[in-house]
Amino acid sequence: MYSDLETLALGLATYRGETKTHEIYDSLSGLQTLLNSMARLEILDISFGHYNWLFYDQGFPKNGQWTSLTKLSLFYLEINVKDLVHLFTVAMPNLRNLMLEWIYLRGGRWEGMIEFMRTAMNLSSFGPCLHNQGLFHLGYQVFADCRNEPFLQMLEDYVVNGGRHPCLLPDEPASASQRFLSELEL
């Protein structure tokens, strides 16, 4: 159907009321069918609303494969760690440019996903504005708001270039970041 399309930019309408986006769009089987048919997709820019999140299984097909996809911009999605790891590694194995904004992570902490992205993915660019109740844990003691630009820049630099995980305490060795991986519920 749309198998020759290489770029898709899509935004779902937002409802600013008491009804949550995931309740309005109970099932988006048409979107799932569309995405599943786009085997040659190289760039995907998709926003699942604003102010509310959509659940991963409502918008993405269960066994989707986008092996040509190199750039993903993803906004307002609620997803568990297992599905996010699968999406980034199995469904999108050639992903190199990633922008995440307001992604609500279930079953893990962003410290571990950041470590996973650095060690298991070969990203050339990463734009984070992640979300877990609006806060990142820095060394399990200090918190940073997700709009903290210097911190987001440190995350991007770490994922793309390596170095020291920005969430480690000053007295911890760089190798201590491996514990973040073990804390993920994979």
If you had to describe this structure to a student in words, what would you say it looks like?
- With 186 residues, this protein is α/β, with parallel strands linked by helices.
- Helices cover 30% and strands 25% of the residues.
- It has seven helices and eight strands; from the N terminus they run βααββαβαβαβββαα.
- It has helices spanning 21-24, 29-36, 56-59, 81-91, 110-120, 149-161, 178-182; strands at 7-11, 43-47, 54-55, 71-80, 97-106, 125-131, 135-138, 142-145.
- Strands 1, 2, 3, 4, 5 and 6 form a six-stranded parallel β-sheet that branches. A two-stranded antiparallel sheet has the order 7-8.
- Strand 7 and strand 8 form a beta hairpin.
- The longest helix is centred in the last third of the chain and has 13 residues, at 149-161.
- It starts with 6 loop residues before the first strand and ends with a helix.
- The model is unreliable at 137-143 (pLDDT under 50).
How would you briefly describe this protein structure?
This protein is an alpha/beta fold and about 190 residues long. It has helices at about 20-25, 30-35, 55-60, 80-90, 110-120, 150-160, 180, and strands at about 5-10, 45, 55, 70-80, 95-105, 125-130, 135-140, 140-145.
Average pLDDT, rounded to a whole number, is 82
How many helices in DSSP terms? 7
Strand portion:
25-35%
The proportion of residues forming helix, as a percent range, comes to: 25-40%
How many beta-strand runs? 8
Assembly state (oligomeric): single chain
The SSE order reads: EHHEEHEHEHEEEHH
For the termini, the CA-CA separation is 34 Å
Q: Sheet bearing the most strands, described?
A: 6 strands, parallel
The outline comes out as globular
Measured on Cα atoms, how large is the radius of gyration?
Answer: 17 Å
Unreliable residue runs: 137-143
